[in-house]
Structures are given as C-alpha cells and as structure tokens.
Design brief:
Blueprint: H1 2-12, E1 16-22, H2 32-46, E2 53-59, H3 71-80, E3 84-86, E4 89-95, E5 100-106, E6 112-118, E7 121-123, H4 132-135, H5 176-193, E8 201-202, E9 207-214, E10 217-224, E11 228-229, H6 245-263, E12 274-275
Parallel strand pairs: 1-2, 1-7, 2-3
Antiparallel strand pairs: 4-5, 5-6, 8-12, 9-10, 10-11
Bound molecules: flavin-adenine dinucleotide.
Flavin-adenine dinucleotide binds next to helix 5 and strand 9.
C-alpha cells in the first residue's frame, strides 16, 4: 500500500526538495531505497520537472553500493538526475507537519552531529530488525538474527535447526534471489540431518539486486559472499555492470512466473546447490 502512496506523492510534486533515505545495513535488497529514487527522478525528468525539484540521497552508509563494481553505472544516473549525495547520514527523526527531517551525521573521525533538513517529499526506509519471536528466542545471535553457518545454513548451536531468508545472520544481500538459492541447500541439508543424504550442500552467498535506474532499464547486480561478481548471463546478453533493457524484461516478465510457478512449487532446475563433495545416497 505504501508503494502506490509514494507514486501518488511523486506525481503530485511539481517543485521543491525531495529527500530519499537509506538506513544502516542490513536491509532488504541493499539497493531498494535507491530504486524509488531513480524511478521518481526518471518521472520528473521525463515530465520536464527536474530543474524545479532538488533531489537528495541521504545514506547511512559510506558508499553508494556495497559492491564497488556497480557504483560507476549508478553514479552516471545520480549525475544525470542531478542528485546531491550525502553519505554517513542516518535519519533519526521526522517532523511531518513541520516537514523537517533530522539526521545524525558521522564524520570520518567518529564524531557525530545533528543535521536538520526541510523537505517537500520524504522517502523513508526504516532500519530493519528480525521479528520479536526470533530476536527474543535462543535461535538468535547478539544482533537478533538467526545464527546459522553461512555455507550450510545449519544453526550454529542446534544441528537440527536450519535457516534461510532475510531472518538469518548471513552476510549475503537479503533478497528473494538469495532465498531462492538457499532453499535447495536447506532442503538437502535437512535430509543430511535426517540421515538420508551424506555430503552437505553449500550456499555461496548469491544474492541479486536489480536496480531500476530508469523506467525500462535495470542494472542487474549479482554477487556472492564478499562482493564477488556472479553474473547469471554472458555479458553479451545481459552485462550487469551496465543498464539493460533485457534485465528489465527479465524482472518484469520472466521472474514473476518463475517465482509463482517454479520457486514456490519447488521446481527449480536452475538453483541446484553445490555439494561439499560427491554425494552418496544411503
Ligand atoms: C522494496 C523492496 C524491493 C525488493 N526488491 C527485490 C528484488 O528486486 N529482488 C529480490 O530478489 N529481492 C527483493 N527484495 C527482497 C525480498 O523481498 C526479500 O529478500 C524476501 O521477501 C525475503 O523473504 P523471506 O521469506 O525471508 O522474508 P519475508 O518476505 O519478510 O517474509 C517473512 C514473513 O514472516 C511474517 N511474519 C513476521 N512475524 C510473524 C509472526 N510472528 N508470525 C507469523 N508470521 C510472521 C511476515 O509478515 C512476512 O510475511 C526487495 C525488498 C523490498 C522491501
């Protein structure tokens, strides 16, 4: 319901200051806060409003995107849309009626100061935590996420517990694309725990973040643990480091049926897990 509301606000804004924010990691789909910014700017640009709207991006992080290889393509769009970038700024308070946003700015020496900015449109992405029933359970680590081995996704203390999805403490991008690759690993390792398979399956940290840099074009970020690039397609088909129409088509037309008819029904020929060594049926 908040996406249509955001779109309504974007279309209604004719001039003024538009502030987009990104909280500290971990968040769902590391690039999601920027997607709203790019699509809004694209709309304003195509409707001749760019010169009347000052767009600012306030990120709690120190860089535009965690995997450096994707930053150049994203910077091209930030410049094209004349976005003012502010890093190490964390949104801490909003005065809705007064239209004021308060940020905590952290300088390189670790000192912090408060910065108050007026806005006409504010896009807020909240800081994100696991649900209480996880945070307050013995399954959680100190930060509140389910404490699993990053490779096998088996709980570090309870060998008969396995975890996947955004709720775990693995360092992959929290994306559906990650959950898609994790599910077969967990399914296999549950069978290992039940004594019906032997070699453990391994998750490599794959995640994907399709950055919608303009309507009709996507920078398709795909990477594993440590930010190692992991493109699904050959660069002549979809080069993830460049904006691509094919990547938009993939996300808009191909991924929804793949999600509903394959992934959710457990038919996933393209997401077979790696095995720690040759598998032996018992
Ligand atoms: C704006 C946005 C854009 C995104 N874009 C992409 C993208 O392009 N590609 C991509 O791969 N991923 C994307 N993601 C990330 C993707 O949505 C998540 O990674 C994915 O949904 C994770 O699935 P999950 O099942 O682990 O968690 P969730 O989808 O969060 O599911 C957890 C569920 O648990 C429920 N729940 C919570 N507490 C309880 C309780 N006490 N009892 C019962 N149920 C409970 C919640 O209601 C929720 O339905 C995006 C996310 C956002 C927010």
């Amino acid at each position: 319901d908040l996406a249509p509301y955001t779109w309504q606000l974007v279309k209604a804004l004719k001039h003024g200051r538009a502030l987009f924010t990104q909280p500290p990691m971990p968040i769902k789909c590391a690039g999601a806060p920027q997607k709203a910014l790019y699509l809004s700017c694209d709309y304003w640009r195509k409707n001749g409003l760019q010169s009347q709207i000052n767009t600012h991006f306030y990120s709690a992080g120190a860089t535009l995107f965690g995997v450096a290889d994707y930053v150049p393509a994203l910077m091209v769009y930030m410049q094209k849309y004349a976005v003012e970038l502010k890093f190490t700024h964390t949104l801490v308070a909003v005065d809705g009626p007064g239209k004021l946003a308060t940020f905590k700015r952290t300088s390189p020496d670790g000192n912090t100061e408060t910065v108050v900015e007026p806005f006409d449109l504010l896009h807020v992405v909240p800081p994100q935590i696991a649900p209480d029933f996880i945070r307050n359970s013995p399954l959680a680590d100190k930060a509140g996420w389910v404490d699993v081995d990053p490779a096998t996704l088996t709980h570090r203390q309870y060998a008969n517990v396995h975890g996947l999805g955004d709720v775990t403490n693995t360092s992959n991008a929290k994306t559906m694309a990650a959950a898609r690759k994790q599910a077969p690993v967990v399914a296999h390792n549950v069978l290992v725990a039940l004594g019906r398979r032997r070699s453990l399956a391994i998750y490599d940290g794959y995640g994907s973040c399709p950055l919608t840099v303009e309507r009709g074009k996507i920078v398709l970020a795909e990477f594993t643990y440590g930010g190692t690039l992991a493109p699904t397609f050959a660069p002549w088909f979809i080069n993830g480091l460049k904006p691509s129409r094919l990547a938009w088509f993939l996300k808009e037309r191909l991924l929804p049926p793949l999600y509903w008819h394959c992934m959710l029904k457990g038919h996933e020929w393209l997401a077979a897990p790696f095995k720690s060594d040759t598998e032996h049926e018992k």
